[in-house]
Design a protein that fits this description.
alpha+beta; Aminopeptidase; six-stranded mixed sheet; 4 helices; 6 strands; binds coenzyme A
């Protein structure tokens, strides 16, 4: 919880940059309600059992965040959030966080990962594709009403 402000700051900066890249108009990028909802969401993710939050630090500063949780039947581990501060993109931070997630897939024996990605988020889609994720055919809608693709990752047991 000591890192909550930093976690929300990284999420907000990464999300805004990704939406801007995907063509969301400036006036619709964010608002007070969104920030409050991110504070509440991350506080829950950090404190609730069954959810795990990881931070990546560079020189003692939080620059990346990830959260994951098991689905109800315990057959998949959802990658709920992964965000890196835009100034740190393409330096391996997301890849390191993702490696920790894959390790959790193996340690829990779940072996199947799921993530939802906005279809116009080319950067994140390239990242996931490079790391072995593939669309599972499910198309949904984000809380903001944007079309989102579900991706799946299958890893081998250790
Ligand atoms: C997606 C995200 C987490 C990736 O983090 P990152 O620290 O930049 O990722 P890495 O530097 O570890 O990249 C790992 C590999 O992914 C691939 N990759 C990452 N970004 C890419 C891009 N823009 N184009 C092509 N490949 C890319 C590359 O193969 C890269 O390895 P390389 O740089 O050695 O070639 C980051 O871009 C981000 O925070 N985006 C905004 C928030 C977001 O969209 N989150 C996901 C929501 S579903």
């Amino acid at each position: 919880m000591d890192d909550l402000d930093a976690v929300v700051s990284v999420h907000t900066a990464a999300r805004t940059a990704a939406y801007r890249e995907g063509g969301v108009p400036e006036g619709e990028l964010d608002g007070t309600e969104g920030i409050v909802s991110r504070f509440n969401g991350w506080a829950r993710a950090i404190q609730l059992p069954g959810k795990t939050t990881l931070c990546a630090e560079v020189d003692g500063e939080v620059v990346g965040v990830l959260s994951m949780e098991s689905d109800a039947p315990g057959t998949a581990l959802e990658l709920s959030q992964i965000h890196v501060r835009p100034g740190q993109w393409r330096r391996g931070v997301g890849g390191r966080l993702h490696a920790a997630y894959v390790q959790a897939l193996r340690e829990t024996g779940v072996l199947t990962g799921l993530v939802g990605v906005w279809e116009r988020n080319d950067r994140a889609r390239a990242f996931y594709t490079r790391l072995g994720w593939r669309p599972d055919g499910t198309v949904g809608t984000t809380s903001e009403g944007l079309r989102c693709l579900r991706l799946r990752l299958d890893v081998a047991s250790a």
